[in-house]
Design a protein that fits this description.
This protein is α+β, with helices and mostly antiparallel strands and 142 residues long. The chain has five helices and five strands. Strands 3-4-5 form a three-stranded antiparallel beta sheet.
């Protein structure tokens, strides 16, 4: 059974994706801290970027994730845009990891979503190095 499309064209999906990315890059969060000058705790609202995800886009666009995959990912008409969205999610996570916006403790978790794994690399010495290993056989992070 075909689902009703919230986005009737790939261009409409692209416009929504661009709006979602703007929202992700300008999230407002409250930061609490102690102001020694005033001698009190203060709260300030600041902009912080969050990582792009298809799941987050679905929540933002008010469509079920299953509908996104069934309606758009499986459609030949939308497949290029869906591929582009997936690639942007991966690049965004990697960029934010490399820029220190994602805590390093979470890097393995985030990058595993995109086919990377953390594995020890044997260099012939007692030193063990951790590298990202993508499914394409290329090693990253050395």
């Amino acid at each position: 059974m075909a689902r009703h499309r919230r986005f009737n064209t790939p261009q409409a999906l692209e416009r929504a994706w661009e709006a979602y990315k703007k929202d992700c890059n300008a999230r407002k969060v409250k930061v609490h801290g102690f102001c020694t000058k005033e001698g009190r705790f203060v709260t300030e609202e600041v902009e912080k970027a969050v990582t792009y995800t298809i799941e987050g886009f679905c929540v933002w666009a008010k469509i079920p994730r299953s509908a996104f995959y069934e309606t758009y990912a499986e459609s030949e008409r939308f497949s290029d845009m869906v591929s582009h969205i997936r690639e942007e999610c991966e690049v965004d996570a990697r960029d934010k990891f490399e820029l220190g916006l994602i805590p390093t403790q979470l890097s393995g978790l985030w990058m595993s979503k995109y086919g990377y794994s953390l594995k020890p690399k044997d260099s012939g010495s007692s030193e063990v190095r951790v590298v990202f290993d993508a499914s394409d056989g290329v090693e990253y992070g050395e």
